[in-house]
Amino acid sequence: MNAGGTYRSDQGPALLAHLWQSLRRPEYWAYSSWLEITTKYRRTSLGLLWLALPVALFVLVLGNVYSHLMSYPLERYLPYLAVGYVTWRFMIQVVTDVAGALPSHKANIMEGRIRLTDFILVSFSKAFFHLFFGGAVVVAVLMWSPETHLGHLWTLLLSFPLLLLNLGWIAVCIALIGARFRDTQELIGAVLMLGFLLTPILWQVDRFPPDTLRGSLVRFNPAFHLLEVVRAPLLGGHPETASILVVCLLAAAGWALTILLYRRYARYVPLWV
Q1: Interval 160-174: pLDDT, tens
Q2: Which of 68, 82, 127, 208 could form a disulfide with 93 if both were Cys (CB 3.0 to 4.6 A apart)?
Q3: Spatial contact of 117 and 15, defined as CB atoms under 8 Å apart
């Protein structure tokens, strides 16, 4: 695919060039995601409030239940749950949606005039709309809780881009795999259901210190570190140094691998879809 979006047979397309071109020209993916969301909720009574209502119900209901079951103070547990759940929800929406992004745009791909990264960014854009409304719930919970301390909030300006960098390469890899293997979306859904239980979202990680066996197993989970770099600043703390290192290493290694995979296999996507 050249700069205009058409495929070339002599070499594979360059991922970073395509991504940069897509970000510079957001007309297709930004409008497509907005149109899909507004069309889905246009005839509902609450409209776009449905993007926030499920999050609010989840946090309020499960927050009250689990805070009593695990003897956590509600004013501390509710912000922990809200930030963790909204961040996790953003991550899984990107991952699950992008798994079917390329096959669902088969007609446009066959025309060869739109970059593959545009279709991947559609999934990102839709997830950002959900994150915006879910973030409103997080803000409300943080304002309600007397335990809220935002002294380290500025570190989120550094840590959130790290999350996006990792989601970026993961999304590209999954999009390519999803184009080749149609079971990818179902498999990811099953894995993420288990991942939700194994990742400290409903339960607090401070029950498992890093120097214990269980604490080491928890920190072996990459999703924990991706959550931690975002959640800790919003809860008034610093992310663990190990989490920052893991997230940085994941981003560097992941993008290096993804650039090679995209150059090698992106040209075959029209055949796969």
Answers
A1: 999 999 999 999 999
A2: 127
A3: yes
Which of the residues in the chain have pLDDT under 50? 1-10
CA dist list (Å): 4 to 8, 19, 177: 11, 13, 24
**How many helical (H) and strand (E) elements, i.e. helices and strands, does the chain have?**
13, 0
Contact between residue 172 and residue 262 where contact means Cβ atoms under 8 Å apart? yes
For residue 69, the one-letter residue type is L
Biggest CA–CA distance in the chain, Å, is: 63
pTM, entire model: 0.90
Distance separating alpha carbons of residues 54 and 230, to the nearest angstrom: 21
Measured in whole angstroms, the distance separating CA 40 from the mean position of its chain's CA atoms is 21
Give the C-alpha separation, 57 to 134, whole Å: 11
- 206 touches 135 (CB < 8 A): no
∠ CA 13-164-245, nearest 5°, is 105
Contacts of 176 (CB under 8 A, 6+ apart): 102, 261, 262, 265, 266, 269
Distance separating the N- and C-terminal Cα atoms of the chain: 16
Q: Which two tokens stand for residue 60?
A: 């309020």
